[in-house]
Amino acid sequence: MSAAPTSESPPLDAARSALIEAALRQASQFDANCPSQLAEAIRYSLLAPGKRLRPHLVLLAAEACGGPQAVEPAIPAAVAVEMIHAYSLVHDDLPAMDDDDLRRGRPTCHKQFDEATAILVGDALLTRAFEVLATGIQPGERAARCCTLLAQAAGAEALVGGQADDLAAEFRHIGLERLQSIHRRKTGALFRASLALGALAADGSGEQGQALVLFGEKLGHAFQIVDDLLDVSGAEANVGKRLGKDRRRGKVTYPSLLGVETSRRTASELIDQACQAIESFGAAAQPLRELAEFVGRRSR
Amino acid sequence: MSAAPTSESPPLDAARSALIEAALRQASQFDANCPSQLAEAIRYSLLAPGKRLRPHLVLLAAEACGGPQAVEPAIPAAVAVEMIHAYSLVHDDLPAMDDDDLRRGRPTCHKQFDEATAILVGDALLTRAFEVLATGIQPGERAARCCTLLAQAAGAEALVGGQADDLAAEFRHIGLERLQSIHRRKTGALFRASLALGALAADGSGEQGQALVLFGEKLGHAFQIVDDLLDVSGAEANVGKRLGKDRRRGKVTYPSLLGVETSRRTASELIDQACQAIESFGAAAQPLRELAEFVGRRSR
C-alpha cells in the first residue's frame, strides 16, 4: 500500500516503512553492559525521524531481484546502511567537523548529550552495522561479502575519505570534477552500496547488481545536487537542518558552480538516467522509479 | 627465533613480529580515493611503535590450535584487532575524551594532525578492520563469524561501553566491582576476542577456544592492573605516554583501591590462572605462557 506521491511525502510503502522502523528499534537494543545514557544517545541518533531512503533502496533492490520473499532476508542490510548513515551524520556534526547544532529537526547528538558521547555513539553505530550484517545475512559466506561491500563504501576510500576532502575544500575554490569526486565518495558510495547490498542479499545476478548499482550512482548524484539546491532555497522547518550553511562554510556547491537552473536540469537528467538503468526489470522496479522521481523533486 | 625474555623486551618471536608489521603496512595502503593526508594519519596511528600484544595473541592462539601452518591464515584477524586497538586509542585521546597529547612516545593523532583528522582516522581504522576480516579470513562463513566476534568485542556492550563508563567514573568513587566491569569491557573484551579469533581462524575445537578465551580474560585483567601500576610508578620514557594521569583525572585504579602490593600480587595470581587455563595445550602453548609472564612483569 503506497502513499500517494507528492512533493512532500516520499512514495514509500507505509508497511515497508514500519518494518524498517521496527528493525532499527530492535537492532538498537543493548544489554546492561551498554551504559544506559549511551544506549539512549544511540537510539536518539538512529531513530530520529528520517526518510530512511537508503534502507528502502536496499529492500526495493532485493525485491526487484528476488520478488516479495526477498525483502525479509535483506532487512539486516537495510538496518546496517541506516546505521552507517546515522553514524556519519553524528560524527560530521561534531564541532571539529561541520559543527552543526540541528539535524532532522532536533539538536544534534553532541548538543543533546555531549561531544564524548557523540563520538562513542558514532563508533557504536559503525560497529553495530557490521554485527547486524554478519549475524543477520544468510548464509555466512554472503554475510562476509556484504561486510566487504559495506566496509568499502564506508571506509577511507569512500565515505570517510569524501568527508576528509569535503572539510579540506572549505573556503577553497574547487572545480566541478573535484566536487563530484567528493560527493561520489561522501554520498554516492552509500547509495550504490545500498542497491548492491539489496541485490546481494537477494542473490541477484551480476547483471541485475550492475544495473542497480548504476541506478544508485545516478540517484546518489541527483540526491546531492538537490541537497545543495535545498541548502540555498529550502525551508528550514521542512529540511530539518540549518540551511545556507554551505555558503557560510565557504563550500562550493552545484548551484554555486552551475547556477540553480542548470543544477535542476542536471538532477532531472540524472533521475532519467537512473530510471533507464533499471528498465530491464520492468514492473518489478516501478517502486524504485517512483522513489527516484521523488528524490528529484523533494523539498526536504 | 625468540629473543631472550627480559623485563624490557617481550618474549616475542622476531620473525612473527616482522610478519605482523608487514601485514599492518600492507593493510594500511589506500588508493587515490583516500586523501593522502588521511592515509598518512592512519599509518601514523597504526604503525606507531607498539608491542603488538593483541596480534601476537591472535597468532599464538591460532598456532596453539592448528600448529605452525595455522599462523598465516590468521593474519587478517591479527591485523583487525590491532586496527581496533589503534582506533580506540586515537578516539580515546581526543580532547573531548581523555585529552592526551602523548601516545607510544609520539604526539597523539589530533596533536600531530588535527581533531577532525583524528576522528576520521579512527572511523577509517574501525571500518578497515572489518574489511580486512571479511576479505581475508577463509572460508567466507568463518569470516562472518570473525566479524561478529570482533563487532561484539568492539561495540557498545564492550569496548565502547567501557570507555563511556570510564569517562563517567572520573572524579567519582567507584568500588572494585565497577572498576573491574569497566576494564573487562574496555580492555578485557579485545584480549578475549584476540584469543577467540585466533582459535576460530585456525578452526580450533570449542574446548580449545574456551580455554584460550579464559586465558585471554585472566591476561587482560592482569594487563590492566599492571597498566594502573605503571601509571603510578613507571618511567614516562619507557611507557611512552603521560603518567600519573589517572590521579589527575580523578580515576579510581587498582593500586588506589587495593594498594600497590596487593595489586602486584593479584596480577601475579591472574597470570598463574591464565597459564593454568591453557595447561592442556602442553608445549604448543609455551609461547603464550611466556607472553603472559612478560605481561606480569612488564615495565612499559
Description:
- The structure is a homodimer of 300-residue chains.
- By secondary structure, chain A is mostly helical.
- Chain A has a single domain, classed as Farnesyl Diphosphate Synthase (Orthogonal Bundle), CATH 1.10.600.10.
- Chain A has 15 helices and two strands.
- Chain A has helices spanning 14-27, 36-46, 53-66, 75-92, 109-112, 115-136, 140-154, 159-168, 176-201, 206-233, 236-239, 245-248, 254-258, 260-277, 286-297, and strands at 102-103, 106-107.
- In chain A, strands 1-2 form a two-stranded antiparallel ribbon.
- The longest helix of chain A is centred in the last third of the chain and has 28 residues, at 206-233.
- The model of chain A is unreliable at 1-7 (pLDDT under 50).
- At the A-B interface, helix 2, helix 6, helix 7 and helix 8 of A face helix 2, helix 6, helix 7 and helix 8 of B.
How many angstroms does the end-to-end distance of chain A come to? Answer: 23 Å
**Could you say what the CATH architecture of chain A is?**
Orthogonal Bundle
- CATH domain topology of chain A: Farnesyl Diphosphate Synthase
Per DSSP, the total helix count of chain A is 15
| Unreliable runs of chain A | 1-7
Greatest interface and its residue counts?
A: A-B, 57 and 57 residues
Rounded radius of gyration of chain A (Å): 18 Å
Tell me the major beta sheet of chain A.
2 strands, antiparallel
Helix content of chain A: 55-70%
Shape of chain A: globular
Beta-strand portion of chain A reads: under 5%
The first-level CATH class of chain A is given as Mainly Alpha
Order of H and E elements of chain A: HHHHEEHHHHHHHHHHH
Can you give the mean pLDDT of chain A? 92
- The overall strand count of chain A is 2
Structural class of chain A: mainly alpha
CATH-defined superfamily of chain A: Farnesyl Diphosphate Synthase
Oligomer: homodimer
Number of domains of chain A: 1
Major β-sheet strand ordering of chain A: 1-2
